[in-house]
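Repro:
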Amino acid sequence: MDEEPDMPVPVPDDVPSPWTLRSYSVLADGERGALLDPEGRIVWLCAPRWHSAAVFSALIGGPGHFTLEPADRWHVRGGSYDDGTLTWTSRWVDADRVVECRNALATPASPGRLVLLRRARAVRGDALLRLGLDVRPGFGAHRLRDPRLEDGVWTAAGSGLRLRLLGARTASWDPERGLHGELRLREGEQHDVVLELSTDGDGPPLHPDALWAATEREWRRAVPDCSGLAAPRDARHAYAVLRGLTSSAGGMVAAATTSLPERANSGRSYDYRFTWLRDQCYAGLAVAAHGPHELLDSAVRFVSERILGDGDEVRPAYTVTGEPMPRERGLPLPGYPGGSDRVGNEAGSQFQLDMFGEALQLFAAAARHDRLGREGRAAARIAADAVERRWREPDAGLWELENRWWTHSRLSVVCGLRRIADVSPGRDGRRYADLAGTILAETRRRCLHPDGFWRRAADDDGPEAALLLSLARGCPEGGDPATVRTRERVERHLAEDGYLYRFPHRGAPLGEAEGAFLLCSLHMALATLRCGDRAGAFRWFERTRAACGPPGLFAEEYDVRQRQLRGNVPQAFVHALLLECAVRLKEAGARPL
C-alpha cells in the first residue's frame, strides 16, 4: 500500500459536507467499516482493513466518497437497519416519490477483499439518482489508474488495490472527480451497484442476488435471538454492532473511525480503529451474560493470544490482527469540524492494571460456559502472575491518565482473581483467592475513606465513576456498606439530568468540561441493580439508551444539553454494556439479587 500523505491534500469542490454525528449510519463486515450520511454518501471507509489508510475520507475533510442519492434535493431523509444486521436502508420521500437504497458490506468477509452492495429502488413514482465514486487511497493522497469499462464492469488499480464496479455502465470517468453519472428508475424498478476493492486481484463474478442472499444468511447465523431480554430490539442491534466490529482474527475495534472530536477544538480527537483488550473483555462478558455465542470465543481467543505472547508486558491495545499500534501522528487534512486529524494512538505503551482484572473475569465467564480451553487457562495463570508481580505499581487506569494508585484498578483485579478462583480447582484456585484477599486488604487500608466510601485513588478523595464497574461486578460484595455509599456519592456528585460524568474537572462544571460518559451511565445501571434497586437501574438504562441518533448508534460521550453524540462512532463498549444491562435487568425480574 502507498504511504499516507505528509503534505496537504487538495480537496475537490464536490466533497460532501459534514453532518452531525448522530445522523450517520455504519456498515461493517468485521474487517472494515463505512459511514453513510443521510443523503446516501459513503464518506468513510478504510481498505483493506480497519487500521489501513482511508479510501473515502470526506468525513474528516479529505477527498474520496461513494454517492448514490436523489438528484432532486427537495426531500425528507430517513432510514433504518434490518433487524439484527448492519444493513441500512436509506429512504427519501417527497410529494411525488419514495426512493430507497439498501446498503451493506457483504458478508462473510475476507480480510483482503471488501464488497460494498447498494440496491436502489423506486418505491413510488419514477426516480432519478446521482451516482459518484471517487476512490482515493492513502487518505486522499493517491488516485486509481487505468480505468476501463468492459462487459459492464469498471476496473481500475492503484496503491495496492484493485477496483471492480458493477452497475454503472452509463457513467463516465473524470481524472479529477472519479466516476460520475445518473440512474433512472421507473416505479417499482430496482438497480444494483456493487463495488469491490481487493488486494488479491479479481474475486469471483459480482452477482448481486447471490451476494445479498449470502449476506442475509450470515447475519441470521451470526446474531442470536434477544427477544427475551429487556429492550430486545436494541439488545439485538447492540450484538450486531459488536459482530460488525469484530475481525475474523478475533480483535474488535473500539470504534470504526478516527479523529471525531470529544470536545470541539480541544485537541481531544483520537484514533479508535484498534482493539483495546479491556473493551474486548467488556464485550465478551456482555455476550457471556447472554449465552456462549461466538463473540465470547473471539474475545477469549484474542485476549489469550496477546497475554500468552506478551505476558505482563501485554499492551492495552493492538491492531485487530495482534500487532502493536502505530504511534500517533497527524494528517494534513482539514478534519471533521472541531476535530484534529490523527492516526495511531499513544495508549498502546501504557501499563493498565485493571486490564488484567477484566481478562480474568472474561476467562472465568468462558469457563462457566465450558468455553475456556488449555490456552485460555494458561493465559489466566500468566495474567494472575502479572497481577501478583505488579499490583503495587501505579498504573494509568481505566481513563488512561497519569500513573497513580487508582482504586478501580485494584478492585478490578480483586474481582477477576475471585472469579477465576471460583472456576479453578486445587492449588491455582487457592492461590488466586489468597492473592485477591491480600490486594483487597491493602486497597481497603489505602483507598477506603474513613467515612466509608471508596476514594478515587490512594491520594485522591474525589468521586470517580470508574468505581461503579467493580461494584457492579460484586467487588466488594453487594451488601458491603462501602458499595452503597460509593454508588450514592458518585450519583450525588457526577450525575446530571439522568446522565453520568466520569469525574470532576478542575475549573469547569460537569457538561462543559466533557460530555456525559455513556459507559459510566450503564455501569451505574448495573451498580444500582447490584444494590437491589431494579426500578432505579431501569431508569438509568432507559435514559442512557435514548442517547443515540436515528440509526441507534452510540458514541463514547453525549452532549446532554445539545443532545448530540461526541467522539468516535459506533463506540463498541457502550453497545456491549447496553447488551449486558438488557440481560441483567431481565434476570433480575426472574430471580432474587
